[in-house]
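so my prof wants the structure for this chain in the tokens format not the other one, which i didnt know existed until like an hour ago. anyway here's the sequence
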Amino acid sequence: MIDFTVAIPTYNGASRLPLVLEKLTQQTQIEFLNWEVIVIDNNSTDETGNLIKNYQKQWSFPFALHYYFESQQGLAFARAKAIQKAQGKYVGFLDDDNIPALDWVYQAFQFGENYPRAGAYGGQIHAKFEVPPPENFDKIIGFLAIRERGNTSNLYQPEVLSLPTGAGLVVRSKVWKTCLPEKPLLSGRTENSLVCGSDWEPLLYMYKAGWEIWYNAAMHIDHLIPAQRLEDDYLLSLIHSSCLTFFPLRMLVTPVWKKPLVLVRTILGNLYKAILYRLQYGNKVQEDIIAKCELQIYLSRISSFFYFLKLKIQGV
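here's what i got, hopefully its the right format
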């Protein structure tokens, strides 16, 4: 049996994948592991497929490199294909802009062995900016999948949507297969949409089934963030798209009796916060991108209720 699978979903990642693969070939402390790497090509239009096939021809490492194609666009579908094809007891997801530390595979495997009730866990994700971010960027940095919760491992709180990001996430493959419905509520990011939430949906199903979700402080990844991801339009779109799934995800873990209260807090609570924020910061909201983004959080959480209704109308 394979102990561990590193799964890399990618869309047009030909220019980014070589560095990720290089770091995986340099992993340490894994001589005792039987592991593999799989690349899930999510309908790329660049040379991703040819790149991996060329790597396979020259591959001389003791772990296998596999390539699979997923034509249905969306990160959720790419990850589902990865789970389907992975042979490992654990599956660790890396995005094509995630550079793992040289002991990442070892730390990921060892944590799962040490914490048998952990259905999924994520580690530390550090930002590596191509250009310096705006002042006070730490207020919204979490939207770029950055996680730094200290050097002590601890439990997340899924009931309030405190969860690890999908970048660097490790799951027990049997738990994923057992807990997740065949059709996900959210499809995840695509070429034309930043609507996410597919990172968290599987974790909420695991949590509802009684599994723990952990932060593993010993796992480290550098997340490469290009300049265009700091542009105003991108940040505002990312935050809006991320917050659209706030209410649908809350509904997955909220008891029936409490759902009306969550609805009131989502609409009226965030409306109150938005008005208060606008009054407090005045014209700064128009001039400062971080202030704009913070206001956008409240407005988009209100919109998340109507997005939930849209999903229900569509029969999701």
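also thought this was worth mentioning. The chain has two domains: 2-229, 235-313.
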